[in-house]
Design a protein that fits this description.
With 300 residues, the protein is an alpha+beta fold. Helix content is 37%, strand content 21%. α3 packs antiparallel against α4, α3 runs parallel beside α5 and α4 packs across α5.
């Protein structure tokens, strides 16, 4: 396939007719007039029903790969600190705007990334180390979508693809979640006592999300530790240690390196799958990777 370019949204292409914004007419090829950004932001605020215009930021325009268009990054920050971003394409007049993703059909459609730069050893894992497919998950124990994803992931690794799939969990507590960091540290410290304890504490934290808050998180952790017959004193000492916090922070830094912005985010042999996973979508990627490994193994 030749290197065509396609502008596509995550679900659809959204073309915004920015009529009435009042940008001055510009000559062909000139950059959009950034002095009119406040008007553009007000338009986007109303179009996307965003309560506060200060939650929206626009990066400076830069020439887009498509002739006659300029690209800008639009970022929306939620009340809890979570953020989402997209690329905005506009002409020099600012009248017509496209919000979507520019796809280069000559490039890898999987957008596979290398995982060699991140830490995967000595992390919570399930499935054989020599499995042909490895799924790395960045998760947050306060994230409801992560809680829903756990059952899917456990079914895939323990049943659907048993023996052929390995899952590695990396902590990525979001800044707007008030008890996620403490939960991540507790789960890591439980793993250091007993590797199997990590997955049970993960199930417990996800199950009890609605009743956990910053004031009672330690009470919940103590209860989980007791049911797992962990050494509570050792667990508490580990949780206040620098080493445990640094390990969680290392996972967070690895996520930042990969530009993880939300949870759950999965990497299937380096192929990103972002957000609450549809089981069929995950299986599609995993099956494709398994076929690829079988083809490679069959070659002389």
């Amino acid at each position: 396939m030749s290197g065509r370019r396609i502008v596509a949204g995550l679900a659809m292409v959204l073309i915004v007719q920015a009529a009435g914004i009042g940008r001055a007419s510009a000559s062909a090829g000139s950059a959009p007039d950034v002095s009119q950004d406040p008007a553009m932001i007000r338009f986007l605020q109303k179009h996307f029903r965003i309560p506060n215009a200060s939650q929206i930021t626009l990066s400076p325009p830069s020439p887009a790969p498509i002739e006659g268009l300029w690209s800008r990054k639009i970022t929306i920050v939620g009340d809890s600190g979570q953020s989402a971003s997209a690329t905005l394409f506009e002409d020099s007049s600012g009248k017509d705007v496209i919000i979507g993703t520019l796809l280069e059909t000559s490039k890898d459609p999987w957008e596979r990334v290398g995982l060699n730069a991140i830490h995967l050893d000595d992390r919570p894992a399930a499935g054989p180390a020599d499995a042909p497919v490895t799924v790395v998950e960045f998760g947050d124990f306060e994230c409801p979508y992560c809680a829903r994803a756990l059952n899917i992931v456990e079914t895939l690794v323990n049943s659907t693809y048993k023996g052929r799939l390995r899952v590695i969990f990396k902590n990525f507590p979001l800044s707007g979640h008030l008890w996620a960091m403490e939960a991540a540290t507790a789960a890591e410290c439980a793993r250091l006592q007993n590797p199997d304890a990590f997955w049970q504490i993960a199930r417990d934290l996800y199950r009890d999300q609605a009743s956990i808050n910053p004031r009672n998180i330690r009470e919940h952790i103590d209860g989980y530790a007791g049911s797992l017959q962990l050494d509570k004193k050792a667990l508490s000492a580990c949780m206040i240690s620098v080493a445990a916090t640094q390990r969680v922070q290392q996972d967070m830094q690895d996520g930042a390196t990969l530009k993880v912005e939300s949870t759950p985010t999965f990497y299937v042999n380096g192929i990103p799958v972002v957000g609450f996973p549809d089981e069929k979508s995950l299986r599609f990627v995993i099956d494709s990777e398994l076929r690829g490994s079988q083809t490679a193994a069959a070659k002389p």
